[in-house]
UniProtKB/TrEMBL annotation:
This is Molybdenum cofactor biosynthesis protein B. Pfam families: MoCF_biosynth (PF00994). Keywords: Molybdenum cofactor biosynthesis. May be involved in the biosynthesis of molybdopterin. It comes from the Bacteria. Transmembrane segments: none annotated.
């Protein structure tokens, strides 16, 4: 159920997409592309896009660059949130957070349970805030990216969604930094 009034004007955000993968390229990155397609269809702008291998320091380097960039409002990563040997997105991203968005991972898993059952417990999806930038870390499957955007993220990046969303916090932080 959406709580979006029809008459309010949409505020587009600049969103960066980070794909964590040892094998994907821009041509084969269906998860990252699903996020790009959805954010652009919603009226947001793709601020940046990169693919990095599942390496804690490479992920942190890219995310830190975007967190420091006043033109990037949101970072969404896909991949590396499971329990396989090289899955290290939570370990890479969590130390960058000023605040953790506990409800993001909890709600994502709740929504996912209806689609993949108990397999959702193997998702370590997480979210946080860093320097006024919102970060969401999703699993690497295209279905998980669709679910994450459609059922959780889209409303939280629309200032018309009530009773609360992240847009006013992002814009207020940017104004304070200017």
């Amino acid at each position: 159920m959406s709580h979006t009034p029809a008459r309010a004007e949409f505020i587009p955000l600049n969103i960066a997409v980070l794909t964590v993968s040892d094998t994907r390229t821009l041509e084969t990155d269906t998860s990252g592309q699903a996020l790009v397609d959805r954010l652009e269809a919603a009226g947001h702008k793709l601020g940046a896009r990169e693919i990095v291998i599942d390496d804690v320091y490479q992920m942190r380097a890219v995310a830190s660059k975007w967190i420091a960039d006043p033109e990037i409002h949101v970072v969404i990563s896909t991949g590396g949130t499971g329990f396989a040997g090289r899955d290290s997105t939570p370990e890479a991203m969590a130390p960058l957070f000023d605040k953790t968005i506990e409800g993001f991972g909890e709600y994502f898993r709740q929504v996912s349970a209806g689609q993949i059952g108990t397999s959702t417990i193997q998702s370590r999806a997480l979210g946080g805030l860093a320097n006024g930038t919102v970060l969401f870390c999703l699993p690497g499957s295209t279905g998980a990216c669709r679910t994450g955007w459609d059922d959780v993220i889209a409303e939280q990046l629309d200032h018309r969604h009530k009773p609360c969303n992240f847009v006013s916090m992002i814009l207020k932080h940017r104004q304070e930094q200017a």
